[in-house]
Every structure is written in C-alpha cells, then in structure tokens.
C-alpha cells in the first residue's frame, strides 16, 4: 500500500495534460483533453486546474453539468504491458475560477509562455476537485480512492479477472 500511496502522490507530477470525460446537453459522452496543473494541499486534499477554451465542446459540457471525470494514463511506450498501463482517474466537482496572478504564474511555469497567451484569449481555468477515484498499477494492484483514503480493490462480485461467466442462453 505504501508504494501505491507514493505513486498516487507522484504520478500526477509527470503530466501536463489530462484526459477528460464530460456529458453534453443530451447526456452523450464526450472525450477530450486539457492542459493542467496539479496541486496538493497539506491536509491530503488535492486539486487539478485545467485550462480550456470556450470553443471546445467540453467547455459547455462543464458549464452545464459542473462535473467531469479525468484520467492520467501512462504512455504506451513506457508501459511494461499494454494491458496494465498505470492510470489514475477521478470523478470531480468543478467550478470556473478567476485567474489569480499566482495561478497564472503556475500555469506559465509548468506549461511555458504559451499558457499566458491562452489566458489572454478565450481560455478559462476550471478547478477540478476529486470526489473519488481509482488507481491501477498492474495486475492485482487496483485501488479505490475516497478523499485521502485508499483501499485495495479486490475485484468485482463476479470474481475478478480469473472468473469466466457463461453467456446467457
């Protein structure tokens, strides 16, 4: 469990973007990505800040629903197995925030000077606060996350990966 906690804390620092899942006005899923920065706070709380354009479909989806799912996914080239890429995902509550000078500076430091230009255009910062999530490190190494608590996922009610269910006939 100690390794999983360490990975959970360090894994987001390797990313400058996240995969997003949002729903449009008809409830249809939409997958996209956004640049991001990740911040941890002393009490074990964490937050992702994403930078998104008003022109992107996920902008309206987030405005309407104020929630999303985000995922950090290990690159295929560095993964030991294509089947068990490390991944960290969260269900998040969101809200659009005013751009402070400190946050602007954080984005520029992490993403480069282009971030400053984007914030002068139609880009907005959205705060994404994780409610719950999951971390997968490999076979038999899946964890559920609720706040600062992580528990090992022992498989589904169907018995996990080793069980086979017969199709209904």
Description:
This protein is of the alpha+beta class. It has a single domain, classed as Electron Transport, Fmn-binding Protein, Chain A (Pnp Oxidase, Chain A), CATH 2.30.110.10. Helices cover 21% and strands 42% of the residues. It has helices at residues 2-10, 57-65, 101-111, 114-119, and strands at residues 17-23, 29-40, 46-53, 67-73, 87-97, 123-138, 141-146, 149-152. It has a 6-stranded antiparallel beta barrel. A hairpin with a 5-residue loop joins strand 1 and strand 2 (29-40). It is globular. It comes from Candidatus Haliotispira prima. Keywords: Oxidoreductase. This is Pyridoxamine 5'-phosphate oxidase family protein. Residues 8-133 form the Pyridoxamine 5'-phosphate oxidase N-terminal domain. InterPro entries: F420H2_bilvrd_red/Heme_oxyg (IPR052019), HutZ (IPR014419), Pyridox_Oxase_N (IPR011576), Split_barrel_FMN-bd (IPR012349).
What keywords describe this structure?
single chain; 169 residues; alpha+beta; Pnp Oxidase, Chain A; six-stranded antiparallel β-barrel; 8 strands; 21% helix; 42% strand; globular; Pyridox_Oxase_N; Pyridoxamine 5'-phosphate oxidase family protein; HutZ
């Amino acid at each position: 469990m100690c390794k999983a906690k360490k990975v959970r804390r360090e894994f987001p620092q390797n990313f400058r973007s996240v995969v997003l899942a949002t729903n449009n006005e008809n409830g249809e899923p939409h997958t996209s990505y956004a640049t991001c920065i990740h911040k941890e706070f002393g009490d074990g709380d964490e937050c992702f800040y994403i930078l998104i354009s008003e022109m992107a479909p996920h902008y309206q989806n987030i405005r309407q629903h104020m929630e999303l799912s985000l995922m950090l996914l290990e690159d295929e080239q560095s993964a030991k197995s294509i089947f068990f890429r490390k991944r960290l995902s969260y269900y998040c509550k969101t809200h659009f925030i005013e751009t402070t000078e400190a946050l602007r500076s954080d984005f520029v430091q992490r993403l480069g000077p282009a971030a400053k230009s984007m914030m002068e255009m139609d880009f907005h910062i959205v705060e994404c606060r994780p409610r719950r999530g999951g971390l997968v490190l490999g076979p038999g190494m899946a964890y559920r996350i609720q706040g600062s608590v992580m528990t090992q996922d022992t498989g589904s009610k169907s018995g996990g990966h080793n069980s086979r269910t017969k199709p209904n006939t």
